[in-house]
Amino acid sequence: MRPLLAWLPAALAAGVLSACAPGGAPVDPETAGGADLYALARCDSCHGRAREGTFLAPALGQLRPHWDAQTLAEYLRDPAPFLAADARLGAMSQRYTANMRAFAEFGPAERLRLAEWLLEP
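Now predict its structure.
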């Protein structure tokens, strides 16, 4: 009985550590869909998991009246010129505490897939 009890703490520790490990296979940005890119880029940390918005950044549910996929993808590449040129975006950037960052880690195809997903109803 003693040898069994000696393994118990190690077995419990292994179980706890495996529960804390990230699940699933790693996401490849080159083949990932928009939802995966949203998660990979951690957009949810400012815009919310369901794109509902937070005190940091606006909700993303009503983008379609203001954007097409190509223009939104360009915005994701470099938001600064858009914020300077568009009064609506400039006002929005003053209302929220987080600054919109550029997505340099994604190539044009990934930014376009993310933009297309963001424009879905």
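The chain has one domain: 29-118.
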